[in-house]
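sanity check this fold:
=====
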Amino acid sequence: MQKNIIIFGSSRAGKTTLAKKLNEALNYSVIGTDDLSIGFSEGLPQLNIVDPNDSEASVANIAPFIASYVSALAWRSNYRNGTKYVFEDGKGYFDFDKLVPIWEKIEPDKDYWKSQYLIIGLIYPNKTPEQTFNDIRNYDEDREWTCSLSDDELRDHVNKCMESNKIFATKFQKYNPVIYDVSENREQVLDNIVNDVKVKFGLV
């Protein structure tokens, strides 16, 4: 059976690229938390759901919406039109410590969310900050926001990415997603993931 998909991991892990590949290969509809964040911060600022100065508060405030939205889409994809969705979590809103208790209230079966979503985690534990910096400078397209950063600003961003990557690696141990190491040959690894998903869902 095909499932909806959630992709999470640190910045620069390839989440957006993988979501695009799944869209092209399996016609999955892509939903990015970056877009949800913009919608709330610009469209409904009075709700204070997205606080640019306090990411932890933002995650906690948006968790009830994310949990309910994901649950609703799972129902819709199964019982309405069959459309499947892939969530690309660029904002870190998929904090399962906060989401799972809400899901367990929505659906008594505590493993319901696992049955509805394939959770994919991307990490790069064997990549150095310098390699990450060079990859961004060498491969990011002109439209990427990182191109506007100075070298010092980019190195600061890369250091934050490396710390975030360690945190995700720890979270993965708790929630046991399907983990892929994208430290090397990222494009090939992402293509392999698409093939693995096809096999898992019986599409090949």
Q: What stands out?
A: The mean pLDDT is 86. Strands lie at 4-9, 29-32, 85-88, 117-123, 178-181. The CA atoms of residues 182 and 189 lie 6 Å apart.
